[in-house]
Design brief:
The strands form two sheets. This protein has a four-stranded mixed beta sheet with strand order 1-4-3-2, with helices on one face. Strands 5-8-7-6 form a four-stranded mixed beta sheet, with helices on one face. Strand 2 and strand 3 form a beta hairpin. The longest helix is centred in the N-terminal third of the chain and has 12 residues, at 20-31. It has helices at residues 20-31, 86-95; strands at 13-17, 34-39, 47-51, 56-61, 78-82, 99-106, 111-117, 123-129. The chain is built from two helices and eight strands; from the N terminus they run E-H-E-E-E-E-H-E-E-E.
Length: 143
C-alpha cells in the first residue's frame, strides 16, 4: 500500500492532532478528503490516511505536550493541496464554517489560491493551476 513504485506519493504530510477523530471528521466534511485507512479500526484513531484527490495526508495522535502548534500558539505547519475547482472547494469550506485566512486570489505565477486554518491551527493553502507563466514574467529566475 505504501509503495511509491506502485503509485503511493513520494512526499506525504503527517499532522499531529490533540483529537485525531475530530480532525479526521472535519477534514473529510470540510475539505472533501476521503478516509482510506484508520488505525485502530474501532475506537480512537491513532493513525489515519486521507486521500486528498492527488496525495495523502496522514493524521496521528499528538502526544499531550504537542498540539500541532508552536509553543506561542503560532502555526508552524502549512500544507498545499491542488484541487481541480478552487471556487467550488472554497464555497464548500465557507459553507462548512471554516476559518478562512485569505479568500481566493489569482497569483501572477498562474495559480489561484486560498488559505484556511483548520480546527487545531494548521494552515491549508488550496491551489488551482490556471496557466503556465514563465518565471521571468513574475520576477523569478529559474535555475
Amino acid at each position: 500500500m505504501y509503495d511509491p513504485a506502485r503509485g503511493f506519493p513520494h512526499v506525504v504530510v503527517e499532522l499531529a492532532y490533540a483529537n485525531p477523530d475530530r480532525a479526521v471528521d472535519w477534514l473529510v466534511r470540510v475539505f472533501g478528503f476521503r478516509l482510506i485507512l484508520r488505525h485502530p479500526e474501532v475506537g480512537a484513531i491513532q493513525h489515519a490516511d486521507l486521500d486528498t484527490g492527488g496525495g495523502i495526508v496522514m493524521v496521528r495522535q499528538a502526544p499531550d505536550q504537542d498540539t500541532g502548534a508552536c509553543a506561542d500558539g503560532h502555526t508552524c505547519k502549512q500544507i498545499i493541496v491542488w484541487v481541480p475547482d478552487l471556487n467550488e472547494h472554497f464555497a464548500r469550506s465557507v459553507e462548512a464554517g471554516a476559518d478562512i485566512v485569505r479568500p481566493p486570489v489569482d497569483k501572477p505565477w498562474g495559480l489561484r489560491q486560498y488559505l484556511v486554518r483548520d480546527l487545531e491551527g494548521h494552515l491549508w493553502e488550496f491551489t488551482q493551476h490556471l496557466r503556465d507563466v514563465p518565471p521571468h514574467e513574475w520576477g523569478a529566475v529559474a535555475l
